[in-house]
Automatic annotation (TrEMBL):
<feature type="domain" description="X8">
    <location>
        <begin position="366"/>
        <end position="451"/>
    </location>
</feature>
<keyword id="KW-0472">Membrane</keyword>
<feature type="signal peptide">
    <location>
        <begin position="1"/>
        <end position="23"/>
    </location>
</feature>
<comment type="similarity">
    <text>Belongs to the glycosyl hydrolase 17 family.</text>
</comment>
<feature type="transmembrane region" description="Helical">
    <location>
        <begin position="494"/>
        <end position="511"/>
    </location>
</feature>
<keyword id="KW-1133">Transmembrane helix</keyword>
<dbReference type="GO" id="GO:0042973">
    <property type="term" value="F:glucan endo-1,3-beta-D-glucosidase activity"/>
</dbReference>
<keyword id="KW-0336">GPI-anchor</keyword>
<dbReference type="InterPro" id="IPR000490">
    <property type="entry name" value="Glyco_hydro_17"/>
</dbReference>
<keyword id="KW-0732">Signal</keyword>
<protein>
    <recommendedName>
        <fullName>glucan endo-1,3-beta-D-glucosidase</fullName>
        <ecNumber>3.2.1.39</ecNumber>
    </recommendedName>
</protein>
<dbReference type="GO" id="GO:0005975">
    <property type="term" value="P:carbohydrate metabolic process"/>
</dbReference>
<keyword id="KW-0812">Transmembrane</keyword>
<keyword id="KW-0611">Plant defense</keyword>
<keyword id="KW-0378">Hydrolase</keyword>
<dbReference type="Pfam" id="PF00332">
    <property type="entry name" value="Glyco_hydro_17"/>
</dbReference>
<dbReference type="InterPro" id="IPR012946">
    <property type="entry name" value="X8"/>
</dbReference>
Amino acid sequence: MAILINTCIFLLLVCCCFPTTSSERDEPYVGVNIGTDVSNFPSPSDLVSFLQFQKITHIRLYDADPQILKSLAKSKIRVIISVPNNQLLAIGSSNTTAATWIQRNVVAHYPETLITHIAVGDEVFTTIPSSNPILLTAMQSLYSALVVANLHQNIKISTPCSASIILDAFPPSQAFFNQSLVPTLLPILEFLGKTGSPLMMNLYPYYVFMENKGVVPIDNFLFKPLIPSKEMVDPNTLLHYTNVFDAMVDSVYFSMRNLNVTNVVVLVSEIGWPSKGDSTESFATVDNADTYNSNLIKHVLDRTGTPLHPEITSSVFLYELFNEDLRSPPISEANWGLFYGNTTPVYLLHVAGSGTFLANDTTNQTYCIAVDGMDLRTLQAALDWACGPGRANCSEIQPGEACYQPNNVRNHASYAFDSYYQKEGRASGSCDFKGVATVTTTDPSHGSCIFPGSKKTSNKPKEMVNNSDEASGAQRVKSFVIVSSRRTSAIHKGSRYFIAVALLTFVFLFLL
């Protein structure tokens, strides 16, 4: 009890000492990174039209392309522009060069083009450590130029960092920055705090999973509903983590707190899941990418924050808008996009009703199925409701019908859930059933069993079975059936190494 009381006091103090800045009061949002290693990259005007059609309101560019910035004028799309790593030396060595850069890339376009942030370099600490000594100087010189232009209150300056700058990341309360970087990193964090700027972090739960697959269940990564015993618990704070994303964000906050920095918020400048990989990346699939990004979008727009800071929800930039087919192997490097360069979707997000980002789904072909590993009683109760008060058509899961086999609760529940979901027009919230159902873009039809959402659905009329006494699943008497970045691959591996080792420690301590 004493430990619990002390933990509550600690959390109260942390929350109270964290100031509420204007950036924190802003609504969290989901943006996209736009890489250009695409063989048929759209013209700037076509790109902006596409962004508007998809209701994408925040983007990050890896440079400051003048044609794209010009096309963004009066579009109301907010944009992060970037100083490429190869320009750091010039800007960090000359105030005049920094001022010229601001005039050419900011003043010339703002406010018609809504530039919100300048990302100075990309993962400088891990990709070009020789530039570490000039990174802060470059940021300060650009800031001074913004002050002269009276834009320093409107445009924030930061630098995207790799997750590998954090060591012992799990449990989050034990996380700390690589000590060799602190002499350079701490002044940058202090600069961010003084200017009201966020710390940009490139976070990739996918790579954490790849290094530890089989140890931490994939549901913990994909934001799937978890039973309490599967949640990750930080023993030092007793905070419960239902997904790895929140744990990674909190590891950043704890790392900053260890340096007495408590006034900087986290902006996730890169995050995502690849839809295709080589033979060693079996979890880089369309379904996992769809599930991850769809659930991440919902998680952010639900504004639930993290266990450490429920009052602060980090905005995120998905990596990325287009598949960059010109990128070098491995295969996954070219398959992080939501869309192909011709603007057709790579996979079909299911985020309707979740907010402004892609407010209309990119597909009309989604299905509702039962979540793996759910308690059978809870699943049965949801199945009974769907076939009863929910008025789902459960005729196909009666004995002798096409979807009766396999005769188990999960299979019957999936069919009933999809029937209800399709009947409700795939409306937001119609595939939940108190957390035991999830949306998928993979057609769950099998053999002669065609699910209601499938284009192959037969027009053959079936008698609607709605009475809960007549049908609870296939038959209530049968319900006891046991249901048995932009960075190179080498840099990715460097980032994964530190996180992977730390996560293994976390797993063995807290998933027992």
